[in-house]
């Protein structure tokens, strides 16, 4: 049996277990809206200590654990000791792409396509993840054709 699943959460309201289970089944392909606008507005602040605990809990549930912190915040040496810098959203997106492959077990996860509003701001990235090489090739071709047009 095979299935195609569209995961369109309202912001970070999606539990990683859903994505993980789909990847482990090796028969489900998914389209997933990755809500970077919600992440930026509510979680990925320069000072993580100021983020509300309920927002952190949503991010942990969406990501599956707290490992997103190691991706989103990079420790560097500064003049006055260790400093923490906020990573770019592209780095977070790339890490999630790797997570879909390495943790969830999807064999094929092409680069996602950014979906923008009328002013060009990225609201979310559309991911495709699949156990199927042919499906991934088709979606990759479509994403490449429209990647610079992703205005919604």
From TrEMBL:
InterPro entries with a match to the protein in the record: Tcm_partner
The protein's name in its UniProt record: Three-Cys-motif partner protein TcmP
